[in-house]
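R.M. (postdoc): so does anyone remember the format we settled on? I'll just put the structure tokens first.
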């Protein structure tokens, strides 16, 4: 992948800030592992988090070391903290937490790690994937609705599939995950308020920390919704890794997203989620798009659909996805809602998504929009408290995005598989 900026001064500014943030995160804080504290906000939990903890910061330093712009010592230190306590491989484990998160961090940050270490983690991840697939098969046979944690990127089988794509793309487990996603995309005639109108990924789970919605909802986003499975199906198809019904599933998801595509004065957009009431009304209640973001907004959804269009060789769909992304970036009302530099819902996520999308785009519009996005990321990352660590929700993600854009090395190391944008 070549540099999409073509602006040496901006490259230098991005690279300089990435280096400064990496220096600020050179040494992990001393963990406070209290004997009886196993709560979700304790040091032992944050250590094995890709989102907010040591596992994610190790990826930043590992990528920098592999490109000759960092040292290996911080990689070892952050990985040592990530593995300082027993790793979680039960209900809460997924791509962003626990054994899979540490395995993913080690795969990306230190590909030359001791084979025995990776072998132990591989077996633990395989055990988790097989348990999740077994539970999903039982649920599918019962024609019940899935939980978000069954299929999403953060905790579910989509995220585990993303790790397998990065770690062992030719293995049988990845194909089993893809077969599951194909089934997820099929309609489910469940006996609930939605009837046969709801897609197979309709869930009764609350959306994030919100209260449960009567009748459940369909989540559209990359982090917790159907855009994540779509991106994984598209990325694997692009690499000629397919299972029976693979392309049909991509097409079915895309057609459903077409149904809920809204067109406003500032361009196309999609709702973040749909309730049963909105499903039956055939129209979302939201009057317009929310903030543009990787996790829920138009950037993540547009990139997933762009990848799907490339997999289907559908030039019209690809142009439509790229047009939606460009419009969201050019709308000051939308971009004005972005207030932090993070990958999840901030400027780093927008910049990284746009950079990878621009490299695949059929026109130059996204590449032209990118310099302004990078300047906004620099502005916000430069004024953020240096103590904020973590890859997905912290400064490490902003630094890694700036480093990637400044050096043009995103395809070589493929850290963005963590977000399913490449």
């Amino acid at each position: 992948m070549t540099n999409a900026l073509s602006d040496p001064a901006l490259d230098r500014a991005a690279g300089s800030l990435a280096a400064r943030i990496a220096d600020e995160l050179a040494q992990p804080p001393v963990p406070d592992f209290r004997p009886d504290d196993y709560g979700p906000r304790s040091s032992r939990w944050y250590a094995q988090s890709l989102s907010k903890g040591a596992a994610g910061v190790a990826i930043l330093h590992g990528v920098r070391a592999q490109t000759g712009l960092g040292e290996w010592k911080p990689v070892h230190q952050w990985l040592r903290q990530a593995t300082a306590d027993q790793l979680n491989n039960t209900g809460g484990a997924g791509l962003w937490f626990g054994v899979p998160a540490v395995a993913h961090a080690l795969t990306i940050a230190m590909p030359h790690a001791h084979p025995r270490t990776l072998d132990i983690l591989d077996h633990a991840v395989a055990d988790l994937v097989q348990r999740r697939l077994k539970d999903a098969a039982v649920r599918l046979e019962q024609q019940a609705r899935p939980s978000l944690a069954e299929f999403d990127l953060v905790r579910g089988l989509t995220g585990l599939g993303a790790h397998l794509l990065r770690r062992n793309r030719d293995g049988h487990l990845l194909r089993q995950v893809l077969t599951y996603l194909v089934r997820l995309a099929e309609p489910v005639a469940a006996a609930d308020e939605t009837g046969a109108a709801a897609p197979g990924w309709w869930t009764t789970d609350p959306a994030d920390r919100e209260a449960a919605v009567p009748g459940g909802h369909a989540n559209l986003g990359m982090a917790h919704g159907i855009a994540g499975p779509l991106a994984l199906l598209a990325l694997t198809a692009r690499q000629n890794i397919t299972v029976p019904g693979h392309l049909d599933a991509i097409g079915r998801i895309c057609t459903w997203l077409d149904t809920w595509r809204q067109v406003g004065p500032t361009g196309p957009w999609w709702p973040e989620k749909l309730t049963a009431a909105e499903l039956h009304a055939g129209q979302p209640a939201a009057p317009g798009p929310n903030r543009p973001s990787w996790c829920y907004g138009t950037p993540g959804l547009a990139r997933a659909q762009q990848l799907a269009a490339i997999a289907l060789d559908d030039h019209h769909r690809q142009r439509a996805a790229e047009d939606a992304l460009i419009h969201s970036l050019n709308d000051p009302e939308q971009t004005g809602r972005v207030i932090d530099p993070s990958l999840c819902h901030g400027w780093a996520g927008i910049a990284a998504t746009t950079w990878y999308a621009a490299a695949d785009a059929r026109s130059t519009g996204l590449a032209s929009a990118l310099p302004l996005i990078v300047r906004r990321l620099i502005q916000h990352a430069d004024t953020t408290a240096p103590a904020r660590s973590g890859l997905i929700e912290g400064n490490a993600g902003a630094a890694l995005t700036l480093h990637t854009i400044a050096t043009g090395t995103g395809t070589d190391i493929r850290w963005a598989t963590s977000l399913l944008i490449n």
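R.M.: ...and that's the designed sequence above, right after the tokens. Also worth knowing: The chain has a mean pLDDT of 91. The two ends are 11 Å apart (CA to CA).
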